[in-house]
Amino acid sequence: MEPVADCVLIVDDDDLVRSMLLFAMQYAKIDAIGAASGDEALAILTESKDRIRLAIIDILMPIMDGPKTLAMLRTISPDLPCIFISGESGKYSPNMLQELTNIPLIRKPFQLPNLIDTIRSYLRPSGPPLEMPPQADPPLDWPPTW
């Protein structure tokens, strides 16, 4: 039996952001699946529970916001690690998010190399880091030219 590859679930209602993140994951050789809503993320996790090792969730989405999406995802996979991403956190302050979920918030716009390093740290067998990785300058060949 072939080993199951670790996969990242990217949940963002903005098609452009989601596509950009999926492209960046492909460039970084990280398997990823995109979802445009909390409901779609639930369906994907239900079908791919054994593959999904991390969820990256936008905070502000219509119908089911990021924290509600995370709560629903964790009914299926209680220990699923998550990173919130958002340009604006709406009614959720960073401190409130930390108290509610104990999950890091990465603000948009962010440096893709830093996000990729953070994702890779969650996919390692040792689990998530105790602290967020330090900010680093992007490599000279990043971002790729379109």
TrEMBL record:
Gene3D superfamilies: 3.40.50.2300. Residues 126-146 are annotated as: Disordered. One of its GO terms (molecular function) is kinase activity. Keywords: Kinase, Phosphoprotein, Transferase, Two-component regulatory system. The lineage of its organism: Bacteria, Pseudomonadati, Planctomycetota, Planctomycetia, Gemmatales. Residues 7-123 form the Response regulatory domain. One of its GO terms (biological process) is phosphorelay signal transduction system. This is Response regulatory domain-containing protein. It comes from the Bacteria. The keyword Metal-binding does not apply.
